[in-house]
Automatic annotation (TrEMBL):
Domain of life the protein comes from: Bacteria
CDD domains: AdoMet_MTases (cd02440)
Key word GTP-binding present: no
Keywords (A to Z) from UniProt: Lipid metabolism, Methyltransferase, S-adenosyl-L-methionine, Transferase
Record-given protein name: Class I SAM-dependent methyltransferase
Length: 434
């Protein structure tokens, strides 16, 4: 008799404290739960063992990455329905408790025993190969640990990123006029927005911190006539960016380095762009980051800091890390409220002059990347590993929902290093930028 799905439904509802929100299919082919909509597929008993040995988000992530869990149908709808079961970071989940919290409660021992019986043989599965293996070290944000973290995330393969990001090769929030825009046009408009905020003019010198595959450097040099130094810790990114610079005929104006921003010693620069890089800096190093960039700017120079933010939480001193993101996506990444970021920039000597939230823009961007990935799914799996492709699909889809719901934000902060006498060099009507 095939009834694993019914047994799982019963256990899940007792643990979760409410009805199962989507249909469930088990390894024996049985199904249970409400019809219609997406289906959560539990492919084998190993998925249950992963949850028992690592209750919560990390166990679920391991089961997803290994292919033990799958979603048939709309992934966004499934993640929305399962949000209370998955997330453990204090979001509003409608009063339901996460699976990790439920498994640790003393009043559900009978349900846990039934889950153990379903999961047998009870042996701890090895984590998927895509999981990073050096916990703790990457949170120190030394030069060595930051290189390791960047390598884990960005040295996945340039062809894979080209498939996901599209021709722009920009891995940060685009700037949309509307949902009808193309991803390529929205990324071009974002680069132009940054250049306008920085007031770039021919002959100026720009430092692009975390230059990625060179898109900002190329745009600034080609469209605004500036000289650019771009720095990245990823050797694969740098090689790709240098080829793009050469193909664009800009080698006399753009230099791409594999270099830590803390080791840049040839300032001053007239402007600095930091787009989607500061999330890697770490809370303990953020003031150092801000002071370093302040020291590299000429008096009157501008910094454009484009960075993901999280809402303030009750215990701002607590170390905040997302288990799935830390293990599989951005090792050592830390998010801070935008107020914390602007305060540290000011402490470093900057004058913060403008802040623009692009939260909804990032949701549209992520949905565009997911669409690219799903459209070329078989090729994406071949370009990296099946597990890595699954990591990227899950994290981008979940992140899109987080930006849409306000659980995450992203902001462009324009700051200046005041000139002698306190002049900012900005127009009286700031949004004219120049």
């Amino acid at each position: 008799m095939r009834d694993a799905a019914r047994q799982l439904q019963s256990v899940a509802e007792e643990l979760w404290g409410t009805g199962l929100p989507l249909r469930l299919r088990a390894w024996d082919g049985s199904e249970a739960g409400p019809p219609g909509g997406p289906v959560l597929v539990v492919r084998n008993r190993r998925a249950l063992r992963r949850l028992l040995f690592k209750p919560g988000e990390l166990g679920l992530a391991r089961a997803w990455v290994a292919g033990d869990l799958e979603v048939e149908g709309d992934l966004y709808a499934a993640l929305t329905l399962l949000s209370g079961l998955i997330w453990e970071r204090g979001e509003d989940t409608g009063g339901s408790r996460s699976l990790g919290a439920a498994l640790r409660e003393p009043g559900v021992r009978a349900a846990v025993r039934r889950l153990v019986a379903l999961a047998r043989p009870l042996l701890p599965p090895a984590p998927p190969a895509e999981e990073r293996r050096r916990p703790g070290l990457l949170h120190r944000h030394t030069r060595r640990s930051d290189r390791q973290a960047i390598g884990h995330h960005y040295d996945v393969g340039n062809d894979f990123y080209a498939l996901v990001l599209g021709p722009s090769m920009v891995y940060s929030c685009a700037y949309w006029g509307g949902p009808e825009d193309t991803l390529e046009a929205a990324q071009r408009d974002k680069l132009e927005l940054v250049c306008r905020k920085l007031g770039l003019r021919p002959g100026m010198r720009l430092l692009d911190v975390g230059c990625g595959w060179g898109s900002m450097a190329i745009h600034a040099a080609r469209e605004h006539g500036v000289r650019v130094v771009g720095v990245t810790l990823s050797a694969e990114q740098a090689a790709f960016a240098r080829k793009r610079v050469a193909d664009a005929g800009l080698t006399d104006r753009v230099e791409i380095r594999v270099q830590d921003y803390r080791d840049v010693a040839d300032g001053p620069f007239d402007a600095i762009s930091s787009i989607g890089m500061a999330e890697h800096v770490g809370a303990a190093r953020y003031l150092e980051y801000a002071r370093t960039l302040h020291g590299l700017l000429a008096p009157g120079g501008r910094l454009l800091n484009h960075q993901i933010a999280r809402p303030p939480q009750h215990d701002e001193d607590a170390y905040q890390v997302d288990a799935f993101i830390d293990a599989y996506v951005f090792p050592g990444g830390e998010l801070a409220p935008v107020g914390t970021t602007t305060g540290l920039l000011e402490e470093a000597g900057f004058e913060v002059r403008d802040l623009e939230s692009l939260r909804e823009h990032y949701a549209l961007t992520l949905r565009g990347w997911v669409a690219n990935l799903e459209r070329e799914w078989r090729r994406a799996r071949a370009l990296t590993t099946p597990g890595r492709a699954r990591v990227w699909r899950l994290y981008m889809a979940a992140s899109a929902l987080a930006f849409e719901s306000g659980q995450l934000g992203v902001n462009q902060v324009l700051a200046v290093r005041a000139a002698d006498g306190g002049g900012s060099g900005l127009p009286l009507r700031t949004r004219d930028w120049r």
